[in-house]
Amino acid sequence: MGTVKNSNDWNPQLYLKYKDERTQPSIDLVKRIKIDAPGKIIDIGCGSGNSTQILCRRWPESRVTGLDNSPAMIDKAKSDFPDQEWILSDTSCIDSKNKYDIVFSNAAIQWIPDHEELVTRLFSSVENNGALAVQVPVFTDMPLGKSINKIADKPEWIRYTAGCNELFTYHDYGFYYDILAEQSSLLDIWITHYIHILDSQESILEWIRSTGLKPYLERLENNELKNKFAEEILSEIKKDYPLQKNGKVLFPFKRLFFIAYK
Questions:
Q1: pTM passes above 0.70
Q2: Which CATH number characterizes residue 138's domain?
């Protein structure tokens, strides 16, 4: 993942609590890549390595490398998958000198600024007849993302949370099309809404503690403030994501995918 300012390290255990739900977009993205036998693959923002395993299972003869700038995530990946190649770094180490048959990224580039430069650079690292394959959560279009911004902008919180939303970078599908259309021989772009079935409204809060809510909580000075902020977010969650008849909660999650072939 890209360098995130004022950010503590990630919590692999909390992140992996919803491992199946977080991994499904990787599975769907990998299935759509039309390359038979890639030699080298890199997984940008590999986290703890769950998405990397999808790549390894699809192409077991390929050399697959996972890259992330979180020491905790890379340590977890090395512990769980010690025979694989892991790099602790951000995307600054990716340039056109190092070519890959597939440059892959699942739910990571939203943490990195300047997507025009980033996507262009990642695509320049793709070998001829290779592909850049990316999934981005469209968090700002979701009620949850809007609620976080609403609470963070309140007078009692803004002095802590000012600038947090600038740590995320989101664009629509037309933005990525315009960057890649002139360079790519074939573009595949789509959006999927995943309807996650969760046990409670609190489960949604737990889900985002390790991702979209993380930078906001890190700005708060003590646990009392963190808990109060989280409680206000939960109050909004209860409005936007009602309980179903059986007590479960449906959590729609919008994700943008694109594959650009060279």
A1: yes
A2: 3.40.50.150
